[in-house]
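Possible regression after last week's pipeline update?

I re-ran a chain I had predicted before the update to compare outputs. Posting the input and the new output here so someone can diff against the archived version. Not blocking, just want to make sure nothing changed silently.
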Amino acid sequence: MTTRPGIDQTHMSKVLTRELDDSKQLLQLLATEKTAITERDISAFEEAIEMKRSLLERLARHEQERIQLLESNGMKHAPDSMNNFIQACQHDGTLAD
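New output (post-update):
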């Protein structure tokens, strides 16, 4: 494996942080969308749909960036890849958290 511990850990940490932040936003947005549906607020619903589309696109980009980082370290995209990556390039527990 060709991990560069400091560089790859920092890069992966940033990717995962953005992915987590966007996932939290998506969760909030789904609650907003649900409220718009139950209140039959078409305008709010349409706005939520557009925002959700944008967030899902960003999440897909984060996933691709994560996959590319794994592959650039000689790992295939597989269920255990993240655990292997963390074990290979991180020693202080930050990334695992």
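Follow-up from reviewer: compared with the archived run. Helices lie at 5-38, 42-72, 81-89. Marking as no regression found.
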